[in-house]
Amino acid sequence: MPAIDKREQEHCLEHRLEQRRQFLRWAAASPLLTLPGAAAVFAQDQAKRPDPMIWTPTTDLNLIASPKDAINVFDFEPVAFKKVPPAHFGYMASGIDDEVTLRANRQAFQKFQLRPRRLRDVSKIDTSVTLFGRKWNTPIIIAPTGGNKAYDPEGEVAVARACRAGGHLNILSAAGASSIEDVIAARQGEVWFQLYATSSLEVAQQVVRRVEKAGCPVLEITVDRNGGRNQETFFRLRRQDTRTCVTCHTAGIGAARERPNYDGIDMSKVASMQSANMTWDYIAKMRDTTKMKIILKGIVTEEDAQLCLKYGVDGIHVSNHGGRSEDNGRGAIEYLPEVAKVARGKVPILFDSGVRRGTDIFKAMALGATAVCIGRPYLWGLGAFGQPGVERVLEILREEFTGVMQQMGAPNIAAIMPEMVRQA
Ligand SMILES: Cc1cc2nc3c(=O)[nH]c(=O)nc-3n(C[C@H](O)[C@H](O)[C@H](O)COP(=O)(O)O)c2cc1C
Known about the structure:
Blueprint: H1 6-29, H2 36-48, H3 76-83, H4 86-93, H5 100-107, E1 112-114, E2 129-131, E3 134-136, E4 140-142, H6 155-166, E5 169-173, H7 180-187, E6 191-195, H8 201-214, E7 218-222, H9 232-239, H10 280-289, E8 293-297, H11 302-310, E9 315-318, H12 332-343, E10 349-351, H13 358-366, E11 371-374, H14 376-385, H15 387-408, E12 421-423
Parallel strand pairs: 4-5, 4-11, 5-6, 6-7, 7-8, 8-9, 9-10, 10-11
Antiparallel strand pairs: 1-12, 2-3
The protein binds flavin mononucleotide.
């Protein structure tokens, strides 16, 4: 996807500010706000927000002006909302249908409580983990998200540089707006690649050979995007966007052809990046195609975790795609125990969907995750302040996680025990 034109972005920002000014003028004059019903409307709006924090700044009056002002990762979201064009912000924020799953991803963390242990020496905390023989100083990973240039002109390259600064593993999306070669160069280190296999094995194999040649050691195949989806928030916010989408999306919105990781591949028989025809047999064929480690992203049941082991998959990524696959109503953290029951100790387990706090990371690790991926929060940071925003989001999460480990009496990752979490 071409970079967002800066002037166009400024135009959109001015448009959004004017909309907000109009709303504030209307709100100040409106008798509606004195009615009891209005409180219910605002309470409902609050409930739709991804987090129950009522004091998260949401107005222009108290937005953070720089990454260092951020106290938590939520501080970046309203800044990104202000700066990113409505269609792009809407695409990122959107869940599916009623967005029950999107909200459940946050609410479900509250169903799990911590059982801290006391009188342990936690003056030094070691957050390092080992994944496929490689040591990382933090278990916090960048989840693959497509089209990062929708939030900042440098897109995935800015994210990769932020990963380098903080020592994080980066998983690049096949739908990224930057090529695997550019992202590896920016990261100056190991990058994993997430594959949207499309409906064509040949197309998938060509992409896989390219990323293997580029030096990727691990391939994540996303298995939870098979069908169409009603992204209502996206569609509604897109209506507010004054720009003409096809000016940038010349090959069509979301088309694989506009993504550099499919460059040079004959896509004439491929309608989209989704893989409605993918089966376990397909995974066996991919196994024969590459020497890279293979992780399946989007596994959420113990039955499928069993099949992962049977088919020789090297890792499992528990995720409901941030509530963007099907509106199944189950918070992602609730899947983790059943998958861990089958796979813990046998293959690495990655987890994402709804992670916003150090406590979320701790709970996921205690419930069986080997490492935890961050999605929307780094996109908020990217949209708000570019690379420094992503760096600060990751820094906040590292600090929060370290603090929770100290409070929990866990000086290292091995000391994070299942019994430190109980289901309420
Ligand atoms: C804007 C956006 C784009 C995404 N693109 C991809 C993608 O290209 N491939 C993929 O496997 N997952 C994709 N995801 C899902 C993320 O990898 C991750 O599962 C999700 O963001 C976790 O939910 P959270 O962001 O609410 O924590 C995307 C998510 C978002 C928000």
